[in-house]
Design brief:
Radius of gyration: 26 Å
Number of helices: 9
Shape: elongated
CATH class of the largest domain: Alpha Beta
Order of helices and strands: EHEHEHEEEEHEEEEEEHEHEHHH
Structural class: alpha/beta
CATH topology of the largest domain: Purple Acid Phosphatase, chain A, domain 2
Distance between the termini: 72 Å
Number of domains: 2
Strand content: 15-25%
């Protein structure tokens, strides 16, 4: 039997420029620490080999400490054999990066820098390293190279496949660089481990995308995992088991709201457990209709729970403001200038001819006006 851990897309050194300095620091640290978690996951499942299917580094010229600390982390896991293959972000065109890695790499790190088969334990790895960021052709065509009779054959590739069009995206390399979905069968592979798509995807019995072990966006629903793969012998169907490896959660909550329900109760029921919030980036989006007072209550509830999380962002643009006479009475029962202003804002907030930004500004102003009046009366 050959048992190994398949992973990809660590993107070490990713800058996360859209986040605050505190959040950026936590995210960069989590990416570095994932190497230790990958080793622990492999060890815990009886595997001693970790295959990295590209984009281990986010850039072709990562900071020297990013490269050195990654190599040190791999060297520390002395019982693990790491197989490192270039992806499109850290392609072979990054000559200085790979020169540095070849010079400084520990003995337990094998580099897959050519399509030549690599003997590892009881198997042969047939890599398809990315030659440039956009190779423009299916590099996995070279996986049909011969290996000893009866040997377990593991392909390692990086790029998109045709089926990804059904997932709302296109291959990073364009049509001429798409990997054949049946490459495993064409090349006589027992397993084809792919990288590039950050979500975990089963293409067919013998072909999987591992997904990233440490997420970097809300795009994919999993919280960071890798694949433990066991192959009894050449020709056997691989046994593939996901294992959790992520340190930071990226969670998206989509709320459906109506004026008849208590929006704060809906929010509270959807929030993750308190113990996990410190390590969670939460995005809350909502659609439906709310009264002015309900919108103000929802915004206050989000402000109240925000400090629990590593980061909390919100998108309430799709919520229509359903004001009624009671809301306007609270703002100004006399029908004076405040009432007229509130009515004008309410009309703009529900005017479908206006842009989403204009409607949001009006809704926010109306909610703030309500909050101001309510505070003045308290």
């Amino acid at each position: 039997m050959f048992r190994f851990l398949h992973t990809s897309d660590l993107h070490l050194g990713k800058p996360f420029g859209r986040h605050s300095e505190e959040v950026r620091g936590r995210l960069r640290l989590a990416r570095h620490e994932v190497l230790g978690r990958l080793a622990a996951a492999a060890r815990g499942q009886g595997a001693s080999v970790v295959l990295l299917a590209g984009d281990t580094f986010d850039q072709q010229t990562p900071a020297p400490q990013v490269t050195r600390q990654a190599l040190n982390a791999m060297a520390h896991e002395q019982d693990i054999t790491w197989v490192l293959m270039p992806g499109n972000h850290d392609s072979l065109a990054a000559t200085e990066l790979w020169r540095t890695i070849k010079r400084d790499k520990p003995d337990n790190l094998l580099l897959a820098l050519t399509p030549e088969p690599i003997s590892v334990a009881d198997a042969y790895i047939l890599p398809a390293p990315c030659t440039t960021r956009n190779p423009g052709r299916d590099l996995t065509t070279e996986m049909a190279q011969p290996t000893p009779e009866g040997a377990i054959r593991i392909g390692l590739g990086h790029g998109g496949i045709q089926e990804f069009s059904s997932l709302g995206t296109v291959a990073a390399e364009g049509p001429s660089g798409i990997i054949a979905p049946d490459r495993a069968a064409q090349a006589g592979l027992d397993y084809l481990g792919l990288g590039d798509w950050h979500g975990q995807v089963r293409v067919n019995t013998n072909t999987w995308y591992s997904g990233t072990p440490e997420p970097d966006s809300f795009k994919h629903p999993h919280n960071g995992s890798a694949l433990i793969v066991s192959i009894e012998q050449s020709g056997a169907i691989p046994d593939v088991t996901p294992v959790q490896t992520g340190g930071i959660r990226w969670q998206h909550i989509a709320l459906e709201l109506t004026p008849q329900e208590t929006c704060t109760e809906i929010l509270d029921a959807a929030l993750p457990p308190l113990a996990t919030r410190r390590d969670t980036l939460l995005r809350v989006s909502a659609q439906g209709r709310l009264g002015v007072q309900q919108m103000q209550q929802l915004q206050s509830a989000l402000t109240r729970v925000a400090p629990d999380f590593l980061d909390l962002s919100q998108d309430l643009d799709a919520v229509l403001l359903a004001h009624d006479a009671a809301d306007l009475e609270v703002i100004d029962p006399s029908g004076g200038a405040l009432r007229q202003t509130a009515e004008a804002l309410a009309a703009r907030a529900q005017n479908s001819d206006l842009s989403a930004d204009d409607r949001r500004v009006a809704a926010t102003a109306l909610a703030q006006l309500f909050s101001f009046v309510a505070g003045a009366d308290a």
